[in-house]
């Protein structure tokens, strides 16, 4: 049996931790029924068939062998079985690309066969009768992969490997996935899954195909070499998943990619386009997009392909944290691709699901919803959460509620009290998710054509870039109103963006009402810090006075990158007049994008030549930000800066016109 192991050839996996908010489609129901209809005896036969395939080479040691030049086989059939077994272990499919026969003693005798990867070669367009090339209706699986093994007959029972290429130009599925994929195929589940994918593609692309999307990607890349896209195609030449990111999104990730949200809002509504986005927060607390995807197939391997491909687009830099919705396939892929990244479940989604899962209980107990939110959002320690949670279950007699049991079992993945030591760039708990959700619901419905979808999202991206630029200018040119006489507040106003300063200012004002009491001496002095007159909300702050380093039990700084009122209260009490430099997180400052980021730029250079437009863009952006900072310090500086920019811009326009007309060109001095 020939096998092709596209990353997406596996079953749609059911969610273990959460149930979907929408009813499964008929296709999904059929798929689930097929998944459970295979009797154990049949499955044993299926598994044995796979083992036979993997043991196709005769001797027991052959199953672990790698092809090599000069290797001999007793027939071309044995050679093919050996190469196919090797392909199965590595996770790629094979086919016969070439064969040659000779006439010997009046009989046609096969003398050569070449076995290649299924992705070998390129699709050739057929020429129609009028001489034009016929447009292919489906994307081709072939990408020019050179992997192959060629055997030549050297005797009656001797075939020798004479040509061999082991390297592939594409990712192959990991060896541990091969057995599962084969079980899927032989048990009949694969056909049900393919029916599901076919229906998803029909809904997304209508009567057309993916050619519109491909042409859009090619056009964008031609306009800017920094545009990245990748399309996952299965062994049936069908599109399964798509990822893309423009140059600005990739540059934004350099500065703000420490905390990422993988937004799959579409899963909440069966009428929405299967769109997903990698997003984050910039230094103004605005949502920025780091990449987009169309998720037609939602298996673990498809999510893994998406994450790995997105990391390639982001120059291999892993985020500190990633926030996602929950599902077994998604969680497994995150664990595989982001092993050192903190994986958090979206708290807003959890609470929104509660409204449906506990609708009957909410009707009987109208105060339950608010109490749950308070328990989850306001519990600053694990102990507080545990006490409050048990109190709610007992109060409303919900100890046996299966939904709440599920949520409690995975509490360490979504309850803030259990995630205090990880950075999430969190300025607001739900506003960003809610705004993105509203945007998706309003724009991305199945009735929209793919072209309209692309146009709307491009417009939304442009609007986001414009708002960021406007806020950059406003933060540089305006001075916020100060509420205290503290030099620390004045310092923060000059460093932080307007949005972040407002958050810091609120903490500083509260800090004036907090008092610190020393409770233990040592290299790290231990303080109890709390609001005047509130004996119940006391926080422990450890303070290294020589280094001016403080650590609070509320962990606000670890989560958000902004100092809490408890540490600020301690600083004021101990005479620390200005913010220590190590307490100022650059990603929240006005200069978040003003300097090149060393590590990220090195990665860019590794992935792009020095002539890459994305490097030019980054370099120009670096100097432009410095230019804007100096030019906005006074009205006279502003006039000089604007005049110089207008002159330079006019020169660039003149240069482009000369190039277009084929005239000699040069850039004069300003």
UniProtKB/TrEMBL annotation:
> GO MF annotations for this entry?
zinc ion binding
Q: What residues does the SWIM-type domain cover?
A: 539-575
**Location of this chain's protein in the cell:** Nucleus
- GO annotation terms (biological process): regulation of DNA-templated transcription
| Gene Ontology cellular component annotations, sorted alphabetically | nucleus
**Which of UniProt's keywords are assigned here?**
Metal-binding, Nucleus, Zinc, Zinc-finger
Report the domain of life of the source organism. Answer: Eukaryota
SMART domains (alphabetical):
ZnF_PMZ
Query: Would the keyword Nucleus turn up in this protein's UniProt record?
Result: yes
Query: Cross-referenced Pfam families, in alphabetical order?
Result: FAR1, MULE, SWIM
UniProt family annotation: Belongs to the FHY3/FAR1 family.
Described by its record, this protein's role is as follows: Putative transcription activator involved in regulating light control of development.
User: What is the protein's given name?
Assistant: Protein FAR1-RELATED SEQUENCE
User: Which species?
Assistant: Musa acuminata subsp. malaccensis
State the organism's lineage.
Eukaryota, Viridiplantae, Streptophyta, Embryophyta, Tracheophyta
């Amino acid at each position: 049996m020939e096998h092709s192991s596209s990353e997406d050839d596996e079953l749609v996996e059911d969610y273990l931790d959460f149930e979907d908010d929408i009813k499964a489609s008929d296709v999904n129901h059929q798929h689930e029924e097929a998944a459970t209809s295979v009797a154990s005896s049949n499955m044993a036969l299926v598994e044995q068939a796979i083992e036979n395939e993997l043991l196709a080479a005769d001797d027991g040691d052959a199953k672990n062998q790698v092809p090599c030049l000069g290797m001999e086989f007793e027939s071309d059939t044995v050679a093919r079985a050996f190469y196919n077994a090797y392909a199965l272990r590595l996770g790629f499919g094979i086919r016969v690309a070439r064969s040659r026969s000779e006439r010997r003693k009046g009989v046609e005798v096969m003398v050569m066969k070449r076995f290649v990867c299924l992705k070998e070669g390129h699709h050739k367009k057929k020429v129609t009768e009028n001489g034009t090339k016929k447009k292919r209706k489906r994307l081709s699986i072939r990408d020019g992969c050179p992997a192959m093994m060629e055997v030549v007959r050297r005797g009656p029972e001797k075939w020798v490997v004479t040509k061999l290429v082991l390297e592939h130009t594409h990712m192959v599925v990991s060896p541990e996935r091969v057995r599962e994929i084969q079980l899927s195929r032989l048990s009949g589940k694969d056909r049900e899954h393919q029916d599901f994918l076919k229906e998803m593609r029909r809904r997304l692309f209508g009567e057309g195909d993916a050619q519109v999307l491909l042409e859009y990607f090619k056009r964008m890349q031609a306009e800017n070499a920094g545009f990245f896209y990748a399309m996952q195609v299965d062994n049936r030449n069908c599109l399964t998943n798509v990822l893309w990111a423009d140059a600005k999104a990739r540059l934004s990730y350099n500065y703000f990619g420490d905390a990422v949200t993988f937004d799959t809002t579409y899963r909440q509504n069966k009428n929405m386009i299967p769109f997903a986005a990698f997003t984050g927060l910039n230094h103004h607390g605005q949502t920025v997009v780091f990449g987009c995807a169309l998720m037609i197939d939602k298996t673990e391997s498809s999510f893994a392909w998406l994450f790995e491909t997105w990391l390639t687009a982001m120059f291999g830099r892993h985020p500190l944290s990633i926030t996602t919705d929950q599902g077994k396939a998604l969680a497994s892929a995150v664990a595989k691709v982001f092993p050192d990244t903190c994986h958090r479940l979206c708290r807003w989604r959890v609470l929104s699901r509660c409204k449906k899962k506990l609708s009957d209980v909410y009707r009987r107990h109208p105060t339950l919803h608010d109490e749950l939110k308070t328990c989850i959002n306001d519990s600053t320690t694990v102990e507080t959460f545990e006490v409050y949670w048990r109190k709610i279950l007992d109060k409303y007699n919900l100890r046996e509620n299966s939904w709440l049991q599920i949520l409690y079992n995975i509490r360490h993945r979504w309850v803030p009290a259990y995630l205090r030591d990880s950075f999430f760039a969190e300025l607001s708990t739900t506003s960003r998710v809610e705004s993105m959700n509203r945007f998706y619901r309003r724009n991305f419905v199945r009735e929209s054509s793919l072209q309209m979808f692309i146009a709307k999202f491009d417009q939304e991206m442009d609007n986001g870039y414009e708002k960021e630029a406007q806020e950059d200018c406003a933060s540089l040119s305006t001075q916020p109103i100060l509420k205290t006489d503290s030099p620390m507040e004045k310092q923060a106003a000059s460093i932080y963006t307007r949005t972040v300063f407002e958050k810091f200012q609120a903490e500083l004002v509260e800090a004036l009402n907090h008092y610190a009491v020393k409770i233990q001496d040592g290299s790290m002095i231990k303080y109890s810090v709390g609001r005047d007159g509130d004996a119940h909300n006391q926080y422990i702050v450890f303070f290294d006075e020589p280094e001016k380093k403080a650590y609070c039990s509320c962990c606000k700084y670890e989560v958000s990158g902004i100092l809490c009122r408890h540490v600020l209260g301690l600083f004021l009490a101990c005479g620390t007049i200005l913010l220590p430099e190590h307490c100022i997180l650059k990603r929240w400052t006005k200069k978040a994008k003003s300097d090149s980021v060393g590590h990220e730029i090195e990665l860019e250079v590794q992935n792009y030549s020095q002539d890459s437009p994305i490097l030019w863009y980054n370099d120009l952006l670096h100097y432009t930000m410095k230019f804007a900072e100096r030019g906005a310090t006074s009205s006279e500086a502003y006039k000089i800066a604007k005049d110089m920019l207008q002159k330079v811009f006019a020169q660039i326009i003149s240069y482009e016109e000369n190039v277009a007309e084929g005239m000699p060109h040069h850039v004069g001095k300003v």
